[in-house]
Design brief:
heterodimer, A: 121 residues, B: 147 residues, 0% strand, elongated
Chain lengths: 121, 147
């Protein structure tokens, strides 16, 4: 039973880490499409600061959580996240969504107003 | 009975291991294409999908680490609400982002349709006025000939 448990442990680690490594490698080499990851999807499709801050928060948050999980001692329980962290993550996502909504609305109303000869909608 | 359980356990372990190894191998040699893993319908990379991917890996690895770190290995008795909230924020952001994007695409299609209709009306008007002008021209010339 012990041998089976050890084999299963190594096997799942191998699969999880293997998949993560393959995806990370393909992201780095460009095999997985990352074009316009930090660009607006509307308008002139320029660089978007909202997307950059969300990317930083996502990677930072993920590393922080991994650190909490691997440093943890005590009962079998996933580590709890501080409320401030959740609020920051929520605010970051809200900022990104707000920016996206704004650019969509600006594009639509800008288009309509240009059709009406700049007289507004 | 224990022997049978052990045997089934080994068979399942070997089966899952082989399946995982084949999937990894196929990804490596390019038979399984992951190029659009974090892309949306337009072919652009999607930040929401990337965020979902990162959180999925982080939480699955942490969960597995916690399970195997106990002696004997055991599943956590409870999942903290904060983790569910984090996944909820990520998933909710993805859904809202898709909603905004599809709303924009539908809106732009409608605007394009209206613009096309407008162009057709203009073309029709131009064509009608040209025909009318030609008709008037013909009449006047015939009148001149008659005179």
């Amino acid at each position: 039973m012990n041998a089976l448990s050890t084999a299963l442990r190594y096997e799942i680690w191998f699969l999880l880490l293997g998949l993560a490594a393959v995806i990370f490698y393909q992201l780095l080499t460009g095999k997985i499409n990352t074009k316009r990851l930090l660009n607006e999807t509307t308008g002139n499709r320029g660089f978007s600061p909202g997307r950059l801050q969300l990317l930083i928060f996502t990677i930072g948050g993920a590393l922080y959580y991994l650190m909490l999980a691997f440093d943890r001692e005590g009962p079998a329980k996933l580590p709890e996240l501080p409320t401030e962290f959740l609020l920051a993550m929520g605010a970051s996502n809200l900022f990104y969504l707000g920016g996206k909504l704004y650019s969509v609305l600006a594009e639509r109303f800008g288009f309509l107003s240009s059709r009406n000869g700049g007289k507004g909608v | 009975m224990t022997q049978l359980g052990l045997l089934i356990g080994w068979i399942l372990t070997i089966f899952i291991g082989l399946l995982g190894a084949i999937i990894l191998w196929k990804i490596l040699i390019g038979n399984i294409d992951l190029s659009l893993l974090i892309s949306d319908e337009n072919g652009d990379a999607s930040l929401s999908r990337f965020q979902f991917l990162v959180f999925t890996f982080v939480i699955s690895m942490s969960l597995f680490f916690i399970i195997v770190n106990q002696a004997p290995p055991s599943y956590p008795k409870e999942i903290p609400n904060q983790i569910l909230a984090l996944l909820g924020i990520s998933g909710g952001s993805y859904v809202l982002s898709k909603g905004i994007q599809s709303g924009r695409d539908v809106g732009m299609k409608e605007v394009d349709k209206e613009a096309d209709k407008g162009k057709k009306v203009v073309k029709k008007t131009v064509a009608t006025s040209t025909t009318e002008e030609q008709g008037t021209g013909k009449t006047s010339s015939s009148t001149t000939e008659e005179t």
